[in-house]
Design brief:
Blueprint: E1 6-11, H1 15-28, E2 32-38, H2 39-45, E3 54-60, H3 62-71, E4 81-88, E5 91-97, H4 99-102, H5 112-130
Length: about 130
């Protein structure tokens, strides 16, 4: 699937392995995990059947967040960055929205360089997580 708004990576590693590796790799890039949402468990707890495994892992680098939030507090609606991890076609997929494109929704041209830096780091985190 091609989508200009998303960064997508794929791996043969099991979903659980990816979800265990990602926080450690994110931390090595100075990004902390803010939360992990297990969508299947959450939906089923609300009485909504959902048979797919999907985790949404929220990551953030507070220094980068401070830079963009000082440009426009409304950017808080797009924070923290989220990486979805799910199974598709026998593979584990990691997907995130491109921070550089998300920030175009806000009047914060001074945040563009930080958004690009965050995006480059998110790609590295996802690539390293996918390596066997």
């Amino acid at each position: 699937m091609s989508n200009d708004l998303l960064i997508i990576r794929s791996t043969d590693l099991p979903l659980e392995t990816v979800c265990q590796r990602l926080p450690e790799i994110a931390a090595s890039h100075k990004f902390g995990v803010q939360a992990v949402h297990n969508l299947r468990e959450k939906m089923e707890s609300k009485g909504v059947p959902f048979d797919r495994e999907c985790r949404v892992i929220e990551v953030c680098n507070p220094r980068h967040a401070q830079v963009v939030l000082n440009q426009a507090i409304e950017i808080s609606t797009a924070l923290p960055c989220r990486i979805a991890v799910y199974a598709e076609g026998g593979r584990t997929i990691l997907a995130t929205m491109k921070p550089s494109l998300l920030l175009t929704m806000f009047n914060a041209p001074g945040a563009a360089a930080t958004a690009k830096e965050v995006e480059d780091t998110m790609v590295r985190i996802m690539d390293e997580t996918c390596r066997a």
